[in-house]
Fold each of these.
Amino acid sequence: MGFWSRTFTWWNGATWGTGLFTRLHGEEVARDDAGNIYYRDKKKPASRWVIYNGSNDGSRVPPEWQAWLKGTIDDVPDKALPPKRKFERPAEVNPTGTMAAFRPDGSLSKGGLRPASTGDYQPWTPD
């Protein structure tokens, strides 16, 4: 990442200010499977934050780490939570705004045509 993008963008990783604050005051706690790095303040352990690996989107943080960031659990998820069960699926990033987002029938990306309404529905028409 270039100098200018790190200086002026907050949506794609840490800015210089966040990086400097993290070096001075942060203690790395762990990294998750997505490459996000979790920190806590050296003097105030209840103050916690994440440096994203990529775009800054809260849905990129798994639920167990969300619990740690918000102080719901005190220790890191591997130690504080029970092991994952076989039926649990990994968390997914929110696909809103991407081509992977849900597109209902009638949306412009599906041709703009939707099935005719059924039942007793009467659309409003101005007089």
Amino acid sequence: MFFACLAVILHSYITIDMEKHTKIKTILVAIDFTQKTDSATILAVHMAKRHNARIILFHNVMNFYIIDRTGRQVVGEDTVTKQYADAEHSLELIKNSLQQNYNDITFLKKIGTDTITNSINKIVEEESVDIVITGTSGKQGLRELILGSSSYQILKGVSCSVLLMPEGSKQFKFEKILVPVRVLEKLKEKMEISKLIAEKNKGLISLFGISGDENFTSIRKAFINIRESLKGSDTEDYTSFTVSNDKAVEISKASKDAEFDLIILNYQDEESWKSFFSENFFKQIINNTSVPLLFFKDNDNPAQDPEPAGYDITLPFPG
């Protein structure tokens, strides 16, 4: 009797623990009032309806600072105050419009005044955000290469999963999902969220194993185990395995050849910067794909802030 009760308790614990990793209940969409974020907002609505989730409409008003011997001082405080008021008014209009059209979804609005990643991470913690959606142009000029675009800063800095929505994309349902197996970190958790999204979209998962010279045996073994676990399920599509050190290029090529709706990746960059002008895995995959990219991050992922908190005029300016 004792062991039977223990088994029930353990089963309940495992079920609760799995549900913690496989539910999307709160979606934050980053809005900058440009066309780039229109598709991201529409995607958030479609996902919220499928997952019965609420949406937080977020905009960040960045402060600019002079740093001198007396400490940090806000530059143009009146301007920042006006920008905040304008942003609040614009967000309210968007919220009201969305609420009228989708009265079965709960919409909240939030405005940040810190760096964009610090502002989002605060909301992630306070509101238990499961996923952040942001629009991306997919273009990396010299300025973005050095300072980082807003979408790239969000990807690198926030402490939960990030979905990058390409500008102008109309892909709001994910019926063909590409799931690469390229690193081992959090692979089980990534597969759980992949299966959840496939289930909610009545979609299929295509497993794509890819390994370079390093960790070939372990990645191949993990790929085979996941392939076996998907066999006979409603989400199974096809699987393939390739060996290449150009992982971002191969994943991008595979996504284009089969016209996938979504790529789900671990948030793990195994490639360091080779030179000042080289691209890491993240920038390569963003620049070479035209479909939404979901980077899975477990909630215990430590928050980062890869951007400056303002402009410091006490530092020398190059040139």
Amino acid sequence: MLVEDALLDAGCRIIGPAATVAEALALLEAELPEAAVLDLNLSGEASTPVADALVQQGVPFLVASGYGAAGLPEGHRGVPVLAKPYDPGELTAALARLCGA
């Protein structure tokens, strides 16, 4: 909730969150976000299909994960990574950079 509050305070509109890969993919089918924050692990499942869908749709995203950059799947090594734990201000700043603000 702290992260959601920080994003709302920064003027972001939130789509989600999604706890599973299936939920995330369904959200992407319903509405494309301007940018996305993705965890590498969604309820014990690798979120690679979500990352692939974001790339295919041209949606910039960053990974917020305790695994760090070493956990990025092949093909997504250039994606910005925000290592957990992080300050919500770091997240909003990273999203602003991602969106070109």
